[in-house]
Amino acid sequence: MSRRILVTIAAIALAATACGSSTDTAEAPPATLGTTTTVAVTTTVDASSTTNSSATTSSTTVPEETGFPVTIDAPNGPVTIETQPENIVSLSPTSTEVLFAVGAGPQVVAVDNQSNYPVEAPMTEMTGFEPNLEAIAAYGADLVVIMYDPGDVITGLEAIGIPVIMHPSASTLDDAYTQIEQIGAATGHLGEAAELVASMQAGIGDVTTSTNGGGATYYHELSPDYYSVTSATFVGALYTMLGLENIADGADPDGYGYPQLSAEHILDQDPALIFLADTKCCGQDAQTVADRPGWDALTAVQRGAIAELDDDIASRWGPRVVDFVEAIAEAVAVLQNA
Fold this sequence. Notes:
Blueprint: H1 3-20, E1 36-41, E2 58-63, E3 70-74, E4 77-81, E5 88-91, H2 93-101, E6 108-111, H3 133-138, E7 143-146, H4 153-159, E8 164-166, H5 173-187, H6 190-210, E9 217-221, H7 234-241, E10 245-246, H8 263-269, E11 273-276, H9 279-282, H10 286-290, H11 299-302, E12 306-308, H12 321-337
Parallel strand pairs: 5-6, 5-7, 7-8, 9-10, 9-11, 11-12
Antiparallel strand pairs: 1-2, 3-4
């Protein structure tokens, strides 16, 4: 497995662990900040909870005149942004996509070396896996968004007066929607964020209404050495939502979520669908799969039901998750019409 994939899986696992370790799942009361107006948020604002419970109506209380200060109940605790940020640093590819999607792109001054979308994002050599405090501060950052904290990033930035929002890997769509709304509120684009969430919900709703996988089995490939995802992950839950059955679920006794399967297991399970999330990183496509020993006999290969995904879209939980769900539905349609 390539170092890029190993680091990505490790980061997601660390983020999920950090998020899930919080025991404070109660919604914090909104702060009273002078003359205020309450902006309703229709998903759970306390993102430290990763359970997919029914959505509740929470609120971000902000001054009526300017929208700031605003306090966000992030997984790393309450984060107060005193004024609308003008120099945002994002060390999370998903958060970078969200920032631009809600209209905060002009406020972003630097992003990490994995934030390759949209193309106008100001990519740097900074890494989200080992953030450098001095490099972040050099951009005059007044808001930093990270995916996980390797140990002292949040403490270090807060010590020099820079607010930090940590948005780990989402466990559910509600988590993803909450993160979008929090970034909208933190950047002065709450209305745009609400519109984005509504658009995503409508798009995904259209797909789920029109698609029924009928229990067809699938294999989601993260790398050519057969790392995959289970239904317990954010990605796996999207497949379940469309009526598909994951062949990796029975091969993850520790509940890690990202098991390494064997070729024998995959051949024995004979998935009806194969989804390749290693096309960009590792050059995999329908032909390389068919060329693997014994794979030409698989149902998915025989019926042309191999989806060549965009690795980035298939590994992030931002606005383009709608594109991912649509790609799954298209593959289901190919199988059902074969």
